[in-house]
Amino acid sequence: MTSYRLGIVSLTVFALFSFIDRGMAYDMNTLDRHLDTQRWNRLQDHQNSQRTKPAPRKNTPTNRKASKPACSADSMPPAERRRMEAQARRIMQREGQAAAVAYARKQGMAYHQKLKKQGICP
Description:
Elements: H1 2-52, H2 78-95, H3 97-118
Helix pairs in contact: 2-3
Region (Disordered): 42-92
């Protein structure tokens, strides 16, 4: 009799766990789909917010113009620079590019020496 009871009890327990497992499996499947949907929605929201968010601001003020180095040819007065560029174009047409580059280099060195004499350049 004891083995008969043990068999019935074990069969009942097995049936009970089988029934619970199927129900739990269904609930877990539903929960998994719900969590996957939430994760997907959060990812989409994040990507959309990143796409529409303005670019991060730099620490430097935007209204300042980039300063030109005092010792470069870019700091040459505009009138003098235009005159030198026009002369370099004429030299290029007459003598070629190598002569025009040599002329521009010579003028740049002269301007640099002038700034050195004035104490602007080291």
